[in-house]
Amino acid sequence: MRLTIRLLYVVINNTWAIGLFKFIQLLKKMAHCVTLVQLSISCDHLIDKDIGSKSDPLCVLLQDMGGGNWAELGRTERVRNCSSPEFSKTLQLEYHFETVQKLRFGIYDIDNKTPELGDDDFLGGAECSLGQIVSSQILTLPLMLKPGKPAGRGTITVSAQELKDSRVVTLEMAARNLDKKDFLGKSDPFLEFFSQSDGKWHLAYRSEVVKNNLNPTWKRFSVPLQHFCGGDPNTPIQVRCSDYDSDGSHDLIGTFHTNLAQLQAVPAEFECIHPEKQRKKKSYRNSGIICVKICQVETEYSFLDYVMGGCQINFTVGVDFTGSNGDPSSPDSLHYLSPTGVNEYLTALWSVGSVVQDYDSDKLFPAFGFGAQVPPDWQVSHEFALNFNPSNPYCAGIQGIVDAYRQVLPQVRLYGPTNFAPIINHVASNTSCCCC
């Protein structure tokens, strides 16, 4: 049995096609041995930009693409009202030993919901190479507002971890009878998971806040197993339950220690203990019960896992024959066949099709046209076979599609409107989940 994916490719213009071609080329490069690493980021002594409170920092990671261009690779979450944040969201990128990969970290004080950073205060940045981080394991750099101008005593610490393990742990947690921490309401509880390595506790995950609830159920979440516990089910894990305060002075409700093996023994329950209350009150039992509703370890399969496991990509082509393409006899038309026998549509077909056809065993591709008047009655059709054989619209390989296109072009009249819904419906109605 083999899994099948169906891909509809509508040739609209060459620019779009080349972009898709580059994307597929990137997928092909994944077949080579490339190491994926994840970066954990924390900061200390950030400057304060907010009046009456600390900053709300977020870290942005960029990579030097050459020619003075930088591309954003990812962002951490925003940590409210904190000058020494430890970001729970890790950032992933590929590590190439033979390449100097220059990285730039930017820390911003986020005070609005827009993704643009131009209206947010810059708290400092640092540059280094991925090789420096990997070779150092833990790298601490001073934050700079601009060259030669430090951002106060601010620093950024980055550590790298190779992602060899493709497994993820999925958890769903709940609690009951948590301590009431707010004077005018209940508690606003959230969870933090810390794993222990090298004698230190490292933040692995921070949950969302459940407002005004002493019996919360948190959203199900997934974390890479290696980040959660180093891949070892016996690695010590500390779980902290706290009451969220907007000023960052979160109140500890309680904590407990466990490991992945114990978490997997669902349904599992743990007493949430506040150390100070336990020490002062002889009658103290706990500050609530934390319940593990789901704890599953699963393999997260990559694109290559599917391809190497027998996944097929069925490629369907739809060609736009509407009048907006211009007269095929004019050099300005996308359908113009130059003296070399090539035009924008053929270039697009070759660019994408030559890559995709490698993932289909029989290399028989259905090809259609839309938006043209077709013989013999010259009615407008939005789903006609390029080979004029509606009972068998399959073409042998990309060369077969090209040949059919060249033969049909002088036989149809470009018309309109642009409507490729019938071809999409055709592909959807013929999609099967698997075939034997």
From TrEMBL:
Domain of life, per lineage: Eukaryota
User: Mind telling me which CDD domains this protein's record contains?
Assistant: C2A_Copine (cd04048), C2B_Copine (cd04047)
Chain's gene name: LOC103588075
What is the name of this protein?
A: Copine-1 isoform X6
Q: Which family does it belong to?
A: Belongs to the copine family.
Q: Where is the C2 domain?
A: 17-143, 152-274
Which Gene3D superfamilies does the record match to this protein?
A: C2 domain
Q: Which PROSITE patterns match?
A: C2
Question: Which InterPro entries does the entry mention?
Answer: C2_dom (IPR000008), C2_domain_sf (IPR035892), C2B_Copine (IPR037768), Copine (IPR045052), Copine_C (IPR010734), vWFA_dom_sf (IPR036465)
